[in-house]
Amino acid sequence: MQGTLSWGLPLGVTAYGGAQYAQKYQSAALGAGINMGSWGAASADITQANSQLADDSRHRGQSVRFLYSRAFDTTGTTFRLAGYRYSTRGFYTLEESSRSWMSGWMSRQQRDASGRLIPRPVSDWYNLKDNRRERMELNISQRTGGNGSLYFTGSRQTFWNARGASMSLQAGYNGSLGPVNYSLGYSESYSPAQHRTDRGMNLSLSVPLASLLPGTDKSVYASTSISRDGYGDMAQQASLSGSALEQNNLLWQLSQGHSRRGGESGGGRLTYRGTYGEVSGGYSQGRDYRQVSYDASGGILVHSGGITAGQSLGSTSVLVAVPDGAGIPLEGNNGVRTDWRGYAIQPWASEYRENRIALDVQHMDARTGVDAPVTHVIPSKGAIVRADFIAKTGLQVLMTLTKDGKPLPFGTTITAGDSSSIVGDGGQVYLSGLANNGTLTAKWGNSTGQLCRAHWHISDADASASLIMTHEVCQ
Predict the structure, then answer these.
(1) How far is it, in rounded angstroms, from Cα 153 to Cα 137?
(2) pLDDT 10s digits, 24-50
(3) CB-based contact 119:111 (threshold 8 Å)
(4) Which residue has the higher pLDDT, 318 or 207?
(5) How far apart are the C-alpha atoms of 290 and 151, rounded to whole Å?
(6) pTM across the whole model
(7) Burial 387-405 (b: 16+ CB within 10 A, else e)
(8) Cα separation of 97 and 95, whole Å?
(9) What are the backbone dihedrals phi and psi of residue 211, each rounded to the nearest 5 degrees, phi first?
(10) Secondary structure of 164-227 in the HEC alphabet?
(11) Residue 441: HSE in the Cβ half-sphere, 13 Å Cα cutoff
(12) Could you give the CA distance from residue 132 to residue 243 in angstroms, rounded to a whole number?
């Protein structure tokens, strides 16, 4: 079991803590963070852990962590520094203390002159030789002119039972040249155990085929990448990817690659995102392998209106409620539609920011209308917020109303059951959610002569149109 708790305090301070409990491992953490405004944000915490390792020995230790981050909006720079210090030899993480599949000694046990076994240090056990002592991380990103960005990440790590430090860094640039997106990267890593530094470079390009071949679907992309590792092996990879269906919720990808050591490889993958979840399957093969993969994922939300199934939930999500509005698609959410009761899940949302939640009116049923198809929500972290809409199911009618041979006055109020509207120029009024038959009331003043009623009848043949135009006389 594990759990965390955070509490907001005055002056931009947040206190937080957590605990982990397993059969042979227990730990507790306590810390605080502070928002320093233009100076960024910092936090520090300490963790106490009690471990029973694979050789049944018991250990206690502490870990201290420090984090600092700052974003410079005027220059487009983001800076993040993380420092970890494992202050005692006895500190192990839950993962480090649970490597039971690596049980065993690194070498044969030695005996003394009398033939007795010499006790071994705990670090000779495979599970325990690499407990970390210190780790530092640095991340910097910089926006450049246009849509480009530079990035740099580096880390340095030492271990209690090994000499030297392992180091790694990655640097690169992402940008675009016309319709072509490109990425150039460099990586380097040093292993003290092997006394070796590995270096690699990669270049990748992505091109929308619509920019090269007129008439090609804009959602089809061609990509290629070239990389070279520290052993001198060159690898090339090319792929085609795109989407299909009305909501672009059928995703596909084909890929082919070649490297000196690995030879030829290739594969494909197909993913379908639907209202109630996501399914995908793929096939790949190379010189020495063949692989078939398939998976399904989704989420379930229990709320006051019942149970709603959807795609996999993020940490913060939105419950969309459109009573009596079944099958309405959400704008910008591949494959998400309201279910038969009018509920849907938008599986992600930006925390502490205004989120635009919109119904895709262009792909709604012709008999469904929504007065206000857009709303906004601002969720807190980890929240499930609700976005309500009002839908009307029925005919959409552009009706011309006349009385005594003249159009009804501009601004006349029309009421037809649950639908209401105002007459525009030429006596025309738009009404949604109408039945095939009914009576409406028109009112343009308070006197008895400024009110009339009209009865409409629409045949089943005319009702199939997305927008019905009719002329009625008000009496």
Answers:
(1) 7
(2) 999 999 999 999 988 889 999 999 999
(3) no
(4) 318
(5) 36
(6) 0.64
(7) bebbbbebbbbebbbebee
(8) 6
(9) -80, -15
(10) CEEEEEEEEEEEEECCEEEEEEEEEEEECCCCEEEEEEEEEEEEEHHHCCCCCCCCCEEEEEEE
(11) 8
(12) 45
